[in-house]
Amino acid sequence: MSQTLHPTKIDIADNTRQAMVGLLNARLADAVDLATQMKQAHWNVKGPSFIALHELFDGIHTAVQGHVDNLAERITALGGTARGTAEVAASASALPAYPLDIHSGADHVEAVSAALAAFGTGIRAAIAEAGEAGDADTEDLFVEVSRDIDKNLWLVEAHAQEPR
């Protein structure tokens, strides 16, 4: 979705800024959705690993909220308007819907790891797109997000892995 850019003295061509604002807003919708999914897991997990998973999902939520803020602020730095409402996220997120009828730790580990993996895939595609557009700062932001999401995916997946 194209939008009118606000004037800025940033030395990035308007067409590049427009493309990056669109890309950032798409990933912002995913990030807002991911943050709510982490809270859904945090609130509803049950079972023997409750406290560990409850705290892990809350920590991931906090990290994702930081990414939401950074993505939105990059959009505005480029002269765009951050579209970060729940309504936008609900209609624009590329993430799979979070199952609302699960409770066990194992089921939430599966659902959270699927959400993190899907989000990471979208972020890695955004890294490539920002790099091809020549916007190194947006590319770097996406790299930072990717690195953190991969780390959190590892922390979640470790709950489903048995030692060898």
Structure notes:
By secondary structure, the chain is an all-alpha fold. It has a single domain (27-160), classed as Ferritin (Up-down Bundle), CATH 1.20.1260.10. Helix content is 71%, strand content 0%. It contains five helices and no strands. The protein has helices at residues 14-44, 50-77, 86-92, 105-133, 136-157. Helix 1 crosses helix 3, helix 2 packs antiparallel against helix 5 and helix 4 packs antiparallel against helix 5 (136-157). It starts with 13 loop residues before the first helix and ends in a 7-residue tail after the last helix.
CATH fold title: Ferritin
| Shape annotation | elongated
DSSP summary, beta strand count: 0
SSE sequence, one letter per element = HHHHH
Q: Mean pLDDT across all residues, rounded?
A: 97
Q: β content, as a range?
A: under 5%
**The first-level CATH class name:** Mainly Alpha
Q: Give the end-to-end Cα distance, rounded to a whole number of Å.
A: 49 Å
The tally of helices reads 5
Structural class: mainly alpha
As for the number of domains, it is: 1
Known CATH architecture: Up-down Bundle
